[in-house]
Write a structure and sequence with these properties.
- The relative contact order is 0.23.
- The protein contains 2 helices and no strands.
- It is elongated, with a radius of gyration of 15 Å.
- By secondary structure, it is mostly helical.
- It has one domain.
């Protein structure tokens, strides 16, 4: 789930950068890209990757 979120954030950052949209400092393309990298790092760490398997 976090991998999909990071892909969406990367796409939004690309659109902001490619279209040269002037945004405030909070929603700049760099900040959105860093949010995507954070979500990707959490996904790679195993957080938010799905239901935990239960052993019997």
């Amino acid at each position: 789930m976090l991998a999909i979120l990071s892909a969406v954030l990367f796409f939004i950052a690309f659109l902001i950068n490619a279209a040269d949209i002037s945004t405030n400092d909070t929603f700049s393309s760099t900040n959105v890209m860093l949010l995507g990298l954070t979500a990707l790092a959490l996904h790679m760490a195993g957080i938010g990757s799905g239901w935990p398997s239960r052993r019997r």
